[in-house]
Each structure stands twice: as structure tokens, then as C-alpha cells.
């Protein structure tokens, strides 16, 4: 991705630190964690940390500690999510729980989480820890609410937005805020970056939910429509959940009785319903707000890169 | 009187942990957090023995209790299938308890202990994973593994706060109690995961080694008030070949 070009070296350093941080005396944990790291991911959290830090006193070693921690928190939550959703594939690779078992996935997730705290533990700024702790608890609360909302068809767009705020936007918002706090940036800049991260994060998750429907199984590395198959009603679905023609698809998805061919029909129905465009419009609204925050930031390379990231989010297809 | 006070202190502590971990949806669907009374007793030994116990120590102790609850919640997850809401929420309950431990330490904030405890949590998960693949191949290695799993966090707490003299009690009594209860549960097939890998021969030998060590530890613990020595004896006498 070309937007990485300006800070590729820093990102490579962080990547090495990530690998180093999950080194383990347990061969299984080491293998599982490296497997997760090497499966890729967009590293959007480390990128946000790097860019936000550039608005303060940038010191790569400290930036890396924060970035590594946030990426590990994200990774740990994915390992546990796969247990919750009983998912066998992620990004085209077998999940930890599928390759070993649920208990190994729990231990691996907990191990990665512990390494996240070890990494950020080196940053002795109270506000950094208080913010990360609150963020982690809110993410968990978001997951709890997601399970509470599972297969519930009476939920609203507002419920969805609240859920993705906790599930995704908060960690991206905190990535920006922690990056800036760690670099002791000016408080007004910290606030702007936090808001930027939040708006960008909302858009990022909406796009993710759209991609779950419009991409192929191969592109996703898991079955398209997985969200609905797992009982999660995302924004496009909320726009059409009451359509008489769509309801049988939804009921079969929830009951686990959706055949392969009916899944294809369902995905086609959603794609042609106009729901994708409506969801995209909501995503664009958040992106415009994110851009609005960027405009108020001091000029420089970091500001330019943030603008490029907004463009990337709006056009991304992976 | 002292015993009554001891029970009250432990009960208060357990209630504090429970309160800190409260989350309405989890409480409704998963139940109250698992808080281990035995671990609470050993964690609070310095307090029960009349040592100076500050607000910071108390908050840190509650954080350690939260970590233990997180471990216990995640050990309840079915090995192969998480197919109902209660199991899904149990996964998240462990994550929630874990997050609370961090919030408590961040509120102090105790950076040293955040680092120390996170290292220990990582090591405990490593040991559990290794054990999950197969039991340690000697009683000594078995003791080392159980010592880390059962007493690792408490030992760190005691060491960091200058209560090291209590660690030999923790490091012998907790593995001994674990070995005994797991051996009993294994007979009825009520355990899974790494607990099911426990080999009876090694367990029996480990119990013998730990029994001797515990007797020595209690004898050497002259700093311990008599009612606490008695409490430890009462907890462990049924497990010892030669009662202390």
C-alpha cells in the first residue's frame, strides 16, 4: 500500500517488535502467535499510533511500545472472537481454535494480551494506562452487547452504530489518542486526533461489514456473509431486514439451514437491494467528519498521510 | 475471635473482588465471577498476620483476584464447541475480569506491578499450554508447573511488596491442594484440558514431596500467628501423609 511509503521503516521496526514480543517458551503459542502475525492484517492501529505521535515529540522506541500493545490487544481479541463465533478460517488461514482447540485459543489470546501489557507497561504515563484499560473494557462490553443482539431483528441502526463504536472505532480512536499522549502532544491536538480516529474507525467498520457481503470467499479468506451466518446484523442488513423477500434468507442463516446455493442467492439479493449504497453513504459521512478533523491539524507529512488513509478507507476492497 | 476476624477479612476481600468485576449481562447469563477462597486466604496471609496493609496493597490484591477469576473463567471453556450464549459470554467474562485487573493497577498507577504481573500472566499461559499438550515428565517438573499456575500471581504480589517470607507457604500449600483436588476429580472423569493430563503416579510422588516441604515451611514460619498456622494445618492435614 503506497500510503505506507513515508513510514515504512518505522512500520518494519514495529513489525519486528511485534514478532519479538510474542516469542514464547511454548512452541504452540509461538507458532500460533506468529501464524497470526504473518497472516497479515492492515496494521491500521500501529499506523494511527505512528501518525498521531508525529504531532508530538516522536521517539520511535516509545511509539513502537504503544503500537505493539494496541496491535496485540486487537490480535488477542481476534483469537477469542474466533472461539465465540466458532470460526475455522480467518484471512485465509486456519484459526487457532480450529488448528488446536478452544482452550489453546484462550491461552494464546491471554498470552498475547499479557504481552500487550508488558509492552505498554514500559510507558510510565498514567493517562496512557487509564485510557487503554477503559478502551479494553469498552471493547469487551461491545462484544457482550453484540452477543446480546445476536439474531435479534428488532435492533436499530442506532444500536448498530453504538456497537461498532465499541467494537472498532474506540480502539482506532485510542490508537490516535495514545500515540499523541505518548508523544506528549498538545492536548487540543490529542482531542482532534481522538475524534479523527473515532470517525475513521466508524467508517472502517462499516466498510468491513460491506466487504463481508460484496467480496468473494477467496478475497475474504472466509465465507462471504459470515456476519449474518453468525447472527450479527450489520448496517446493510438493517436496511433490508424487514423486506418480505429477505426474511426467509435471514431465518435460514440464523437456523444454520442455509444451503450454499441459497447463500449465493442471498448475497445477490443484498447486493442488488440498494442496501450497500446506503451503508456506503453512512460510511462516507463519517469519512467527511474525519477529514474535517484532519483539516484543523497542523500541516506536515503526518497530516498528508492521514488524508491518504481516509482515501484508502473509502476505496479499500480488502 | 482471631478466626472470626480472619473469615471476615477473607469474605470482605472476596466481596470487593466480586463488586469490582460486576457486569449486569454477565451476572445474568454467566453468574457470579469465580473467586477462589483458598487463593484469597493465601493472598491475604500478610494482612491476616497483622502486617501493614495499605489502600494500594488492597487495590493490588483485588487486581490479583480479578486475574485469578479471568483464568478460572477461561478454563471453563469447552475444548471443542462454544455453541451457546453462556459459553460465548464466559469467554468474554474472562476478558472483562482481565480488563478490570488492568484498570485497577492503572488507577494506582503501579507501573512496576503492571509489568511484573503481565510477565507472570504470560508465563502461566505458556505453562498451561505446554501442560495441555502433555503432562510434565517428572514430579519435580510437575510441581514447578503447578506452582506457577496456582501460585504465580500471588508469589509475585508477595515478592514485590516485601512479603517474601510467605512465599514458601504459598508455593507448597497451593500446589498440594490443587494436586489433591485434581487427582480426586480425575478419578471421576470430571476434568478436561491440562488437568486431565495429570499422571497419577507423578501426582502421588509430587504430593509426597510437597507434604514434606509444607511441613518444613510451616515449622519455619515462626512469624506466623498461631491461629494462621492452625488454619493452614486444617486446610492441608487431610492431604499429608504425616500430619504436621
UniProtKB/TrEMBL annotation, chain A:
InterPro entries: Isoprenoid_synthase_dom_sf (IPR008949), Polyprenyl_synt (IPR000092), Polyprenyl_synt_CS (IPR033749). It holds the Pfam family polyprenyl_synt. Belongs to the FPP/GGPP synthase family. Its cofactor is Mg(2+). Transmembrane segments: none annotated. GO terms for molecular function: heptaprenyl diphosphate synthase activity; metal ion binding. PROSITE patterns: POLYPRENYL_SYNTHASE_1. This is Heptaprenyl diphosphate synthase component 2. It is an enzyme of class 2 (transferase). Keywords: Magnesium, Metal-binding, Transferase. The gene is hepT. Its EC number is 2.5.1.30. One of its GO terms (biological process) is isoprenoid biosynthetic process.
UniProtKB/TrEMBL annotation, chain B:
GO terms for molecular function: heptaprenyl diphosphate synthase activity. Its EC number is 2.5.1.30. InterPro entries: HEPPP_synth_su1. One of its GO terms (biological process) is menaquinone biosynthetic process. The keyword Nuclease does not apply. It comes from the Bacteria. Keywords: Transferase. Transmembrane segments: none annotated. This is Heptaprenyl diphosphate synthase component 1. The lineage of its organism: Bacteria, Bacillati, Bacillota, Bacilli, Bacillales.
Amino acid at each position: 500500500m503506497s500510503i505506507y511509503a513515508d513510514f515504512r521503516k518505522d512500520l518494519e521496526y514495529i513489525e519486528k517488535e511485534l514478532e519479538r514480543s510474542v516469542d514464547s517458551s511454548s512452541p504452540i503459542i509461538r507458532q500460533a502467535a506468529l501464524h497470526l502475525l504473518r497472516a497479515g492484517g492492515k496494521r491500521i492501529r500501529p499506523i494511527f499510533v505512528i501518525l498521531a505521535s508525529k504531532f508530538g515529540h516522536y521517539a520511535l522506541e516509545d511509539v513502537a511500545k504503544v503500537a505493539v500493545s494496541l496491535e496485540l490487544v486487537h490480535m488477542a481479541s481476534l483469537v477469542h472472537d474466533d472461539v465465540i463465533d466458532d470460526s475455522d478460517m480467518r484471512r485465509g488461514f486456519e484459526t487457532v481454535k480450529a488448528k488446536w482447540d478452544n482452550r489453546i485459543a484462550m491461552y494464546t489470546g491471554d498470552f498475547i494480551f499479557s504481552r500487550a501489557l508488558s509492552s505498554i507497561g514500559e510507558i510510565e504515563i498514567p493517562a496512557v494506562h487509564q485510557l487503554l484499560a477503559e478502551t479494553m473494557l469498552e471493547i469487551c462490553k461491545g462484544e457482550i452487547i453484540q452477543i446480546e443482539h445476536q439474531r435479534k431483528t428488532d435492533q436499530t441502526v442506532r444500536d448498530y452504530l453504538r456497537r461498532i463504536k465499541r467494537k472498532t472505532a474506540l480502539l482506532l480512536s485510542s490508537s490516535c489518542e495514545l500515540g499523541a499522549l505518548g508523544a506528549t502532544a498538545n492536548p487540543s491536538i490529542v482531542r482532534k486526533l481522538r475524534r479523527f480516529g473515532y470517525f475513521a474507525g466508524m467508517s472502517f467498520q462499516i466498510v468491513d461489514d460491506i466487504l463481508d457481503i460484496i467480496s468473494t470467499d477467496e478475497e475474504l479468506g472466509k465465507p462471504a456473509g459470515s456476519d449474518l451466518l453468525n447472527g450479527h446484523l450489520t448496517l446493510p442488513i438493517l436496511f433490508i431486514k424487514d423486506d418480505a423477500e429477505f426474511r426467509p434468507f435471514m431465518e435460514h442463516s440464523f437456523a444454520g439451514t442455509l444451503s450454499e446455493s441459497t447463500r449465493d442467492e442471498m448475497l445477490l439479493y443484498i447486493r442488488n437491494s440498494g442496501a450497500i449504497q446506503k451503508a456506503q453513504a453512512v460510511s462516507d459521512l463519517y469519512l467527511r467528519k474525519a477529514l474535517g478533523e484532519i483539516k484543523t491539524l497542523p500541516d506536515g507529512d503526518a497530516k498528508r498521510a492521514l488524508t491518504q488513509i481516509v482515501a484508502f478507507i473509502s476505496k479499500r476492497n480488502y | 475471635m482471631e478466626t472470626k476476624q480472619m473469615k471476615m477479612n477473607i469474605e470482605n476481600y472476596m466481596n470487593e473482588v466480586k463488586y469490582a468485576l460486576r457486569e449486569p449481562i454477565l451476572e445474568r447469563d454467566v453468574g457470579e465471577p469465580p473467586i477462589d477462597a483458598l487463593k484469597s486466604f493465601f493472598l491475604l496471609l500478610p494482612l491476616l498476620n497483622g502486617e501493614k496493609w495499605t489502600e494500594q496493597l488492597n487495590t493490588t490484591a483485588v487486581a490479583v483476584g480479578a486475574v485469578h477469576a479471568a483464568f478460572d473463567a477461561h478454563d471453563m471453556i469447552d475444548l471443542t464447541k462454544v455453541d451457546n450464549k453462556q459459553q460465548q459470554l464466559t469467554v468474554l467474562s474472562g476478558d472483562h475480569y482481565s480488563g478490570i485487573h488492568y484498570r485497577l493497577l492503572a488507577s494506582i498507577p503501579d507501573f512496576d506491578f503492571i509489568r511484573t504481573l503481565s510477565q507472570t500472566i504470560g508465563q502461566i499461559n505458556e505453562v498451561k499450554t505446554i501442560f495441555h499438550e502433555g503432562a510434565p515428565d517428572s514430579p519435580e517438573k510437575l510441581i514447578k508447573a503447578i506452582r506457577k499456575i496456582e501460585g504465580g500471581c500471588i508469589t509475585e504480589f508477595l515478592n514485590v511488596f516485601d512479603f517474601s517470607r510467605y512465599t514458601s507457604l504459598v508455593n507448597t500449600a497451593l500446589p498440594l491442594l490443587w494436586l489433591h483436588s485434581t487427582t480426586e476429580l480425575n478419578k471421576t472423569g470430571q476434568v478436561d484440558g491440562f488437568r486431565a493430563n495429570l499422571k497419577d503416579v507423578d501426582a502421588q510422588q509430587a504430593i509426597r514431596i510437597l507434604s514434606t516441604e509444607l511441613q518444613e515451611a510451616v515449622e519455619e514460619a515462626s512469624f506466623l500467628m498461631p491461629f494462621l498456622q492452625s488454619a493452614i494445618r486444617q486446610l492441608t492435614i487431610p492431604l499429608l501423609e504425616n500430619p504436621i
